[in-house]
Design goal:
The chain is α+β, with helices and mostly antiparallel strands. It has a single domain, classed as 4-Layer Sandwich (L-amino peptidase D-ALA esterase/amidase). The chain has eight helices and 16 strands. Strands 1, 2, 3, 4, 7, 10, 11, 14 and 16 form a nine-stranded mixed beta sheet that branches. Helix 5 crosses helix 7.
Length: 315
Amino acid sequence: MIPGVRVGHVTDAAGLTGCTAILVDRPAVGGVEIRGRAAGVHGLEFLDARHLVATMDGVVLAGGSAFGLEAIWGVMQYLEERGVGFKTAQTAVPHVAGAIIYDLGVGDHRARPDRAMGYRCAANATRGPVAEGSVGAGTGATVGKLYGPARAMRGGLGVAVTDAGGAAVGVLVVVNAVGDVRDPETGRLIAGTRDSPDGRALIDTAAALAAGASPPTFRPVNTTVGVVATAAALGKADCARVARLAMDGYARALSPPHLPTDGDALFCLSVGDARAGATVVGQAAAEAVARAIVSGVRAATSLAGLPTAGDLEGP
């Protein structure tokens, strides 16, 4: 990611779920943007500009649907043991936000990120390059679910880094969308709804919906969640603005994004002192979000019945 940020994964390759912790070296200012009507998010209270606590200590992204929110408390335990958090007379109280995806239909639905997995996730957090694809919270991610999981493909976890007016910007996204994934540079679909359960050709989900295909009924199997971390010095309101602007990256790489059965959410963490405005950071972050989405699905590994973008693209 970027200086001042550490990332840790735990991957359950048997249960096909996992979690990812994004931790900061010093308290960060945070914000969030939520789109769609199926979000599962923790931490809205202390991300509000009116909240007493001005900063936060990390973000957890997890599979397991709402059950996966338990991983947040494992991360909090890890941080409290190290004195990280809002100082009170008795202890430090970490403020850790989080969001989940629904992956219970991919592997063992009884396998969910829990407190112990969250603790290990925090312990695994390191600086430097971040593993992508079918790892951490992206382990059970899928895309292209207009006609259900039988014609879907593998999603994944992707990362991208850029610069915004001299301020570093790092993005981590877990791609688990209803819609397709489109390369924003070429406009070509690279992953999404296939033409048949054993097909290797993609239909265009957005075009199919526009032509009258029935929109997907509510099945909690969707959601693209992520974190934008920047070295720009921003307040809570500006962090929320960056998250809002960075959501444009979803529209560039997901086709279509923010359907009613999606629960898209994007956090922003300000971790530095660089002078860069929220608009400049948000616009740069949007481009990085789009690249991270593409990178995540291209790095994924295939499962029986769930091919990857690489499988369709060939050697």
